[in-house]
Specification:
alpha/beta; 10-stranded mixed beta sheet; 3-stranded antiparallel beta sheet; single chain; globular
């Protein structure tokens, strides 16, 4: 019982993805997602040069031991590159274990705690009319929860706002542009703070009190600005306000929490439980936004969520299209099993991506389900993947109106 081969696969079917494929002596294959948007080749090199040589011949069943070996043995711990590489190994080993057992992975994680995982989609528009069209499109697709982002008068392209949709058109937002240098966007926090409450007032008037609404501040406010926004959004019953301020300074959330009752979600740029210690023990957030891919895999994220559960904090795993279908499947299996699941972000991958990564998970009536195939339920098409060459892609750089670099 041992790992026979480990391959690092890079493909670009609209997005750049890094996948680790492990194969055992008996021919069982496991997949893991190692994608770090805009720094993909750094993880690929980390895996090829430093991790793959350590895996050959290891017992694939020793998942916890392998996780600790890769985390503690390297001495240099944490960080997105290291934790994504460890996550890829961890998820691939869980995939193998479940396939060897002939069971969908969630059955090995304790079984289903619910019939499906509530999912939220992304709606946006440069104007109120186009935003409403986007929301209606999502409702027509079956979403029961929707993140609302909008253009800000006087600014151009900003985070989270896709090309305006027509009725029935697919939401398609790709911020990572293929270009020699990152695009640059302009930002004005005061204009944003004036505009956003008006948007949610209009959305509630149009769509009523039952629709689950979310919003992402994308790290762009000071703690005081975030607290002020939270207060002004309280009448509109948000499911959460996400990334209201950069949370590397965990104590900053004390100011926000003391001033508003709007639920807070944080953590998509975090990589380990240590990033959350203050936030969880002081109950400064309501939802953990980490992804399986960037937080050390299923082994680490399950422990993080068990820690969070002690403080009544739930999951809200990061799920944009730079989390590959492998990573999304992994967190759906985990989310289905967790007692303290909250909600799952769901951006539909492109048709090309879903041809390269053939998935068993499905979406119906607002819920995602990982499916009941053994393992993760994802297969990788090598020949098709090879037809999509890697091309560098960068997320935008954000600047204030005076040219100062700001958080993107």
């Amino acid at each position: 019982m041992a790992i026979r081969s480990a391959e690092v696969l890079v493909t670009s079917p609209g997005r750049n993805f890094v996948t680790l494929r492990l194969t055992t002596d008996s021919g069982v294959v496991g997949l893991g997602d190692a994608t770090v948007n805009g720094r993909e080749l750094a993880v690929a090199a980390y895996l090829r040069e430093h991790v793959v040589p350590l895996l050959i011949g290891r017992d694939e069943r020793r998942i916890e031991d392998t996780w600790q070996y890769l985390y503690r043995g390297a001495y240099w711990r944490r960080g997105p590159i290291t934790m994504a590489a460890i996550a890829a190994v961890d998820v691939a080993l869980w995939d193998i274990l479940a396939k060897e057992a002939g069971l969908p992975l969630y059955r090995l994680l304790g079984g289903a705690s619910r019939t499906g995982c509530l999912a939220y989609g992304h709606a946006s528009g440069s104007s109120m009319d186009t935003l409403f069209t986007s929301i209606r499109n999502h409702l027509d697709e079956g979403f029961k929860a929707i993140r609302v982002q909008t253009g800000v008068p006087g600014l151009g392209q900003i985070y989270g706002v896709a090309t305006d949709q027509r009725p029935g058109q697919r939401y398609d937002y790709e911020p990572a542009l293929r270009a020699p240098l990152p695009a640059e966007e302009a930002w004005d926090t005061r204009a944003y703070l004036r505009h956003v409450p008006e948007v949610f007032a209009a959305v509630r008037r149009e769509f009523g009190p039952e629709l689950v609404l979310l919003h992402d501040g994308h790290h762009r406010m000071t703690p005081n600005q975030a607290a002020a926004l939270g207060k002004t959004l309280e009448p509109y019953d948000l499911f959460w306000l996400e990334d209201c301020t950069p949370a590397e300074n965990q104590e900053a959330l004390r100011r926000v929490r003391s001033q508003t009752t709007v639920p807070l979600a944080i953590g998509e740029v975090f990589n380990s439980v240590y990033d959350y210690q203050t936030l969880i023990t002081e109950q400064l957030i309501d939802y953990v936004r980490s992804a399986v891919t960037h937080t050390g895999g299923i082994t680490a994220l399950r422990k993080l969520m068990d820690f969070a559960a002690v403080y009544s904090i739930k999951s809200g795993f990061h799920g944009p299209t730079d989390i590959s279908p492998v990573g999304q499947a992994a967190q759906l299996h985990l989310g289905l099993a967790l007692h303290n699941f909250g909600i799952q972000e769901y951006m539909k991958h492109s048709a090309d991506t879903l041809r390269v990564f053939r998935t068993s998970y499905g979406f119906s009536d607002g819920l995602l389900h990982p499916g009941d195939q053994p393992g993760l339920g994802v297969e990788y098409d090598d020949e098709l993947a090879k037809s999509f060459d890697y091309a560098p892609a960068y997320l935008p750089v954000n600047r204030l109106l005076d040219g100062t670099v700001h958080d993107w």
